[in-house]
């Protein structure tokens, strides 16, 4: 790892009035133990995005320090996803830069296969994240011209990393979103987020309410059916459900191909006709389509269409019931907004995730305080000021993250090269001055 743990720097900084002043203003100064000066970038988050940046940098001969709050790479995939999960998109759209999936992987790799791919990726590029280090604060020190990144380990050790470049790779899914529902404490049965759901096995024979009809909510319902539970799905908003494949071709791949020739409006129309032919009128099942087409909606709001993996046929056959929004909970009972009530044994919230960037990054320009996403939309979301970068905030999954990662590594490499040129020119002029005098 290309950093030097600088006791020496700590010593120098102790005599730097500016530095000591800053530290004494810092609430957690008493717990600060180490200061590490990093030559390359610091990357926060060792998910697919962070790994992709580290690998692209490594390929250019640049080292980085990768900080990860959990004890493994790709913690979302390893620790917070259900067992039956497969990639939603075909593997060619989920590859990280520089290394493809093994040829013998299926079109839609399983979660375990995807994790194996990521582990081999990290091994191939010698990426060794510093695990169990949660970044609590990061701020650009305009006097020093460096970023100060403060992390806390599980044992309570605080480390400050000082670096020229900071890459935010904490993901769009950093924290689970759990809506507050009146009466939740009265319910009495298990209530959990999909990030804690593993398999329908644990709910066999139970009546389960799944709140949220995105890809996860739909798939969890199917999993519950397959384990002989009785799921009901809360559908509050309009949603586009598309077949995962059309005539053996992935709907996503087909859409990307059509977009090369046709305007988005026409591709949307094509998708809606095909969906109607293959899935029927979803509104009759309680899944009303939004007024805007699926691709346009994705572009406007980031809302991903649901790719059906078999849930619709379970709704058609009555194995999954569709319900309106939840009004309040009582003991083992759910009251819906239309006034009806039903008994349930458990509730699963498939209500998504949110970015956690505003909780730790002290910066007002690049990231929006409200949603923790870069203010500038794709494809310009990856670069901020003062050596700040964002990877994986494009609402375009791993494909978007890979594009970001390549651009970031290229930008840092260019910056390094132009700095090297400047310092060579500076040294040359010093030599010249010396030889002239
Ligand atoms: C169920 C599900 C299925 C999906 N399927 C697909 C798919 O098929 N194809 C696709 O392209 N995308 C899919 N996605 C989207 C997917 O989340 C991303 O494509 C991918 O995981 C994003 O990688 P990431 O590295 O940006 O974020 P993450 O995978 O979330 O990784 C971020 C990492 O940052 C760490 N972290 C967060 N905060 C801190 C902090 N303060 N300090 C230190 N570390 C921190 C986290 O622990 C985590 O390990 C899916 C998402 C979900 C939830």
From TrEMBL:
GO terms for biological process, alphabetical: auxin biosynthetic process
UniProt enzyme class: oxidoreductase
Gene Ontology molecular function: flavin adenine dinucleotide binding; indole-3-pyruvate monooxygenase activity; N,N-dimethylaniline monooxygenase activity; NADP binding
Presence of the UniProt keyword Lipid metabolism in the record: no
Keywords: Auxin biosynthesis, FAD, Flavoprotein, Monooxygenase, NADP, Oxidoreductase
Cofactor: FAD
One Pfam family here: FMO-like
Pathway as given in its UniProt record: Plant hormone metabolism; auxin biosynthesis
UniProt superkingdom: Eukaryota
The enzyme's E.C. designation: 1.-.-.-
Catalysed conversion reaction: indole-3-pyruvate + NADPH + O2 + H(+) = (indol-3-yl)acetate + CO2 + NADP(+) + H2O
Membership in a protein family: Belongs to the FMO family.
Name the UniProt record assigns to this protein: Flavin-containing monooxygenase
Species the sequence originates in: Acacia crassicarpa (northern wattle)
């Amino acid at each position: 790892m290309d950093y030097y743990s600088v006791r020496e720097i700590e010593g120098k900084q102790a005599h730097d009035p500016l530095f000591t002043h800053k530290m004494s203003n810092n609430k957690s100064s008493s717990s600060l133990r180490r200061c590490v000066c990093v030559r390359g970038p610091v990357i926060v988050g060792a998910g697919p995005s962070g790994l992709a940046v580290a690998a692209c940098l490594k390929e250019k001969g640049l080292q980085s320090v990768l900080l990860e709050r959990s004890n493994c790479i790709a913690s979302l995939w390893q620790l917070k996803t259900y067992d039956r999960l497969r990639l939603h998109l075909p593997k060619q759209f989920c590859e990280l830069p520089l290394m493809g999936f093994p040829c013998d992987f299926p079109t839609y790799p399983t979660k375990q296969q995807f994790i194996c791919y990521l582990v081999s990726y990290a091994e191939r590029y010698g990426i060794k994240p510093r695990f169990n280090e949660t970044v609590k604060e990061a701020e650009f020190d305009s006097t020093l011209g460096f970023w100060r990144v403060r992390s806390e380990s599980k044992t309570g050790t605080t480390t400050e990393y000082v670096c020229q470049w900071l890459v935010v790779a904490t993901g769009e899914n950093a924290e689970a979103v759990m809506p507050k529902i009146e009466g939740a404490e009265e319910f009495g049965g298990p209530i959990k987020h999909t990030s804690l759901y593993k398999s329908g096995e644990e709910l066999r024979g139970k009546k389960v309410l799944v709140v949220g009809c995105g890809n996860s909510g739909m798939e969890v319902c199917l999993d519950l059916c397959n384990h002989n539970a009785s799921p009901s799905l809360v559908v509050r908003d309009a949603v586009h459900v598309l077949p995962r494949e059309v005539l053996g071709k992935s709907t996503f791949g087909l859409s990307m191909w059509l977009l090369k020739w046709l305007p988005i409006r026409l591709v949307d129309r094509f998708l809606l006709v095909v969906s109607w032919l293959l899935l029927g009128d979803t509104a009759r099942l309680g899944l009303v389509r939004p007024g805007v087409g699926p691709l346009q909606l994705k572009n406007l709001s980031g809302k991903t269409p649901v790719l059906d993996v078999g849930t619709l046929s379970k709704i058609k056959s009555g194995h999954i019931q569709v319900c309106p929004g939840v009004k309040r909970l009582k003991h083992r009972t759910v009251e819906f907004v239309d006034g009806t009530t039903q008994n349930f044994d458990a509730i699963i919230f498939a209500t998504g995730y949110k970015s956690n960037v505003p909780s730790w990054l002290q910066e007002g320009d690049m990231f929006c305080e409200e949603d923790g996403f870069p203010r500038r939309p794709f494809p310009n979301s990856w670069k901020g000021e003062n050596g700040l970068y964002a990877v994986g905030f494009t609402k375009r999954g791993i494909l978007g993250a890979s594009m970001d990662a390549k651009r970031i590594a290229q930008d840092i490499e260019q910056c390094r090269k132009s700095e090297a040129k400047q310092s060579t020119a500076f040294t040359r002029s010093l030599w010249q001055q010396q030889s002239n005098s």
